Backbone:
């Protein structure tokens, strides 16, 4: 059962000792300077928790209600004479600051799957669940069924509670079940019976429950200050001291103890160097594959980025770490997307340009280089489409389509390529189309189809010519993309026809294309050039 309250954290122990010392000083008529210094020390120590509470981001309403219920609930203490009731003071409960710290850690490591060993009333579980993405999940191990019943109503009130699955019973039995199923977690939080910490820890590492780059967080690692005081005889304090010492000398991991409340240990796998030193094991330049997809420090531009595919590309490149110039013919749309990126913490600017005009293209390139000093990623996406039967296609339609889709594409490639060739490195990604491979039907779009076939050949030619000077050129050929225009009444009959031609059974979403542009922009694709990456749900196969 739950023990009755005593000072829980090292700071609370200090406050308790200072309070007692001050009372003793008063009782023996100690000098005023001693009493005043004790009071000053007490003010400093007791004020810290209140200050942290005020400065930490406010908790959600379900968390506040859960904390209030936990601290006002009558808990049972079992002893020889029977049961007595007591209430937990806020200092003895996982609360606001610690909960927000756990949530912050979830965000920082971009965790999707979390394992909690020892749930208690669920405050920590719900805090972490709030930091998980929509498809994230948390498995909480709890021995006592009544604690699940206590927490569940608050989980049900929260939009994040559905991410939590509570496993009742022995935590070790649950760990064995998860290991047998091959489960792995990005973060594992241990806050259970102290004497078993070392057993949980070893089982987690021995059975690979922790994913590569995952972290183990251990609560109570400074337990009531009884961990590091030499005269400690408290069983839990001794157990945690031995645990901390074991982890600090374990060559498998690296550890830091954060003096938050009663201590949180953050533990990660140490880099392994003795087994093998090849790139497959350690990653190229020591970077695992997902890190090699990062674009930190790179400068990118995306044309036609004010909407649709271009907007999705701009977000994807920015999320991967690049600075992004949002280029569009429509100034308001370019500025709106740049503002979206800014709100996500992405360094972005808007550039207004008509890529069918050579002066605009060169000005676009000059502005970006002037702002950021380089261009590493050129995403040439702007394009137009006009439909007409071939016998009715006018030279005006043909020229207008080619001026943007092929001539404009060439001018962008050439202007960006000149910068990249001087740098000795660059990635050019052109947007072609499934129409470069097949003749889409029933719509008639001769000039569009032909221009996009030209984009593929432009890409192949530049890709072969420039790769030995460090510049890779590739293109993406999307299928039919779901946009608001697609759902207009005039196009509704065509949509049904298109769907019957697509093995995937649906139109493409712009988000289906984002991973491709990040891959082609990253060093992970350095050996690829002149390639047409087709993403069309299989439509070109039929």
Residues:
């Amino acid at each position: 059962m739950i023990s009755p309250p005593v000072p829980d954290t090292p700071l609370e122990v200090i406050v308790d000792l200072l309070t007692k010392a001050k009372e003793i000083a008063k009782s023996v008529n100690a000098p005023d300077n001693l009493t005043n210094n004790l009071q000053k020390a007490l003010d400093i120590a007791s004020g810290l928790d209140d200050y942290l509470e005020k400065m930490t981001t406010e908790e959600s309403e379900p968390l506040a209600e859960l904390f209030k219920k936990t601290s006002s609930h009558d808990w049972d203490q079992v002893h020889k004479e029977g049961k007595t009731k007591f209430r937990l003071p806020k200092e003895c409960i996982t609360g606001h600051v610690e909960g927000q710290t756990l949530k912050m850690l979830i965000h920082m490591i971009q965790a999707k799957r979390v394992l909690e060993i020892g749930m208690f009333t669920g405050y920590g579980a719900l805090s972490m669940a709030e930091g998980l993405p929509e498809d994230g999940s948390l498995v909480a191990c709890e021995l006592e069924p009544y604690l699940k019943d206590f927490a569940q109503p608050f989980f049900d009130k929260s939009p994040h509670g559905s991410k939590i699955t509570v496993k009742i019973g022995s935590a070790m039995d649950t760990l064995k079940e998860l290991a047998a199923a091959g489960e792995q977690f990005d973060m594992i939080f241990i806050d259970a019976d102290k004497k078993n910490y070392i057993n949980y820890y070893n089982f987690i590492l021995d059975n690979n429950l922790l994913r590569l780059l995952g972290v183990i967080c251990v609560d109570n690692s400074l337990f009531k200050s009884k961990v590091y005081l030499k005269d400690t005889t408290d069983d839990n304090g001794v157990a945690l001291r031995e645990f901390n010492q074991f982890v600090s000398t374990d060559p498998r991991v690296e550890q830091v103890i954060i003096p938050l409340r009663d201590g949180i240990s953050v533990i990660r796998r140490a880099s392994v160097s003795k087994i093998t030193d090849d790139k497959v094991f350690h990653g190229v330049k020591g970077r695992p594959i997902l890190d090699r997809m990062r674009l930190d420090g790179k400068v990118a531009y995306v044309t036609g980025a004010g909407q649709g595919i271009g907007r999705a590309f701009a977000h994807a490149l920015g999320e991967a770490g690049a600075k992004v110039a949002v280029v569009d013919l429509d100034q308001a749309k370019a500025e709106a997307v740049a503002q979206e990126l800014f709100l996500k913490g992405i360094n972005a600017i808007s550039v207004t340009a008509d890529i069918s005009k050579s002066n605009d293209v060169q000005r676009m390139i000059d502005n970006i280089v002037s702002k950021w000093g380089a261009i590493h990623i050129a995403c040439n996406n702007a394009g137009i489409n006009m439909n007409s039967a071939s016998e009715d296609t006018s030279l005006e339609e043909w020229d207008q389509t080619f001026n943007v889709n092929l001539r404009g594409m060439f001018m962008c490639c050439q202007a960006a390529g000149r910068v990249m060739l001087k740098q000795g490195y660059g990635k050019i990604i052109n947007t072609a189309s499934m129409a470069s491979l097949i003749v889409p039907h029933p719509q008639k779009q001769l000039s569009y189809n032909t221009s996009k076939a030209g984009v593929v050949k432009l890409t192949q030619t530049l890709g072969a010519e420039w790769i030995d000077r460090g510049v890779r050129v590739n293109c993406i050929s999307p299928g039919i993309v779901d946009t608001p225009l697609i759902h207009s009444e005039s196009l509704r009959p065509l949509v049904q026809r298109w769907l019957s031609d697509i093995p995937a059974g649906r139109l493409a979403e712009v988000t289906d294309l984002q991973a491709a542009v990040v891959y082609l922009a990253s060093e992970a694709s350095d050996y690829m050039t002149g390639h047409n990456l087709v993403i069309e749900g299989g439509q070109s196969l039929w």
Observations:
- The chain has 18 helices and 16 strands.
- The radius of gyration is 31 Å.
- Confidence is low (pLDDT under 50) at residues 1-5.
- The chain has three domains: 10-55, 61-269, 294-535.
